[in-house]
Amino acid sequence: MATRMFSGNFTQHIVQSLGKAIALGEYPQGQPLQAEALLCESFDASRTVLREAVKMLTAKGMLDARPRRGTIVLPESQWNLSDPDILNWMLARKGNLPIISEFVDMRLAIEPAATALAAKNLNEASRLTLLKAMERMKAADRGEDDHLDADIAFHVGILEASNNRFFWNMRHTIEVALRFSIRMTNRFKGVDRASVDDHQQILDLILAGNQQGAEDQMRSLLIEAKTLLNNALDEEKLKKTQ
């Protein structure tokens, strides 16, 4: 038991369980977290392990722990939304369309620019990465690979090919959100996978060094996704008024 309690894996288990519970609203924002003794009992954890988990959630902006005052659940506005864990927990909520819609807004601000930079800064390693991702998308079309993983590999490959360290640093966050948004927009389109041809056009423009064309093509792809999400949000609002 002691080995389990003090292992990094067990601490991560508490972080994941407690963080998700906070994101799902089981611990109200702005209110004290459950008493330390009760949490230790709930997780069958020592105070040392629990405090380490609380420290990790504090670093993510979800909690504020202070002596003699206890631990407070911070409002969502203070959470680090670029943290892949937090995004994953928030996307587990029911009615996550607004979050995904905001994520596509962020993609619209970043990915077209990253695509233009990829066309400008493409090197041999990035070229091979994008070609491999495209081959995976084609293989997925034949049922020989996972279409979601292949699609994500393509978009993450563009962030890498941009040769912009800030874009590349966002890859983990974007990968998490893409797993939700791609499935959702494909469902709205009535397809089970992304269009290989659409992605091939983007790749061809990158390989040709056509910065403006590559940027415009990526923006067009994302605007289509945004339009589908907007339509779905409008339908949800209509249902609530009926």
What can you see in these coordinates?
The structure is a single chain. With 242 residues, this protein is mainly alpha-helical. The chain is 72% helix and 3% strand. It has twelve helices and two strands; from the N terminus they run H-H-H-H-E-E-H-H-H-H-H-H-H-H. It has helices at 2-5, 8-23, 36-43, 47-59, 84-91, 97-121, 124-141, 147-161, 165-169, 171-189, 196-207, 211-241, and strands at residues 63-66, 70-73. It has a two-stranded antiparallel sheet with strand order 1-2. Strand 1 (63-66) and strand 2 (70-73) form a beta hairpin. Helix 6 (97-121) crosses helix 8 (147-161) and helix 7 packs antiparallel against helix 11 (196-207). It starts with a helix and ends with a helix. Residues 1-6 have low confidence and may be disordered.
Helix content: over 70%
Question: What summary fits the major beta sheet?
Answer: 2 strands, antiparallel
- The count of strands amounts to 2
Give the SSE order as H and E letters. HHHHEEHHHHHHHH
Please state the structural category: mainly alpha
Our Rg estimate from Cα atoms comes to 21 Å
Amino- and carboxy-terminal Cα gap? 54 Å
Give the averaged pLDDT, no decimals. 90
- The amount of beta strand, in percent, is under 5%
**Number of helical segments with 4 or more residues:** 12
User: Strands of the largest sheet, in order across it?
Assistant: 1-2
Which regions contain 5 or more consecutive residues with pLDDT less than 50?
1-6
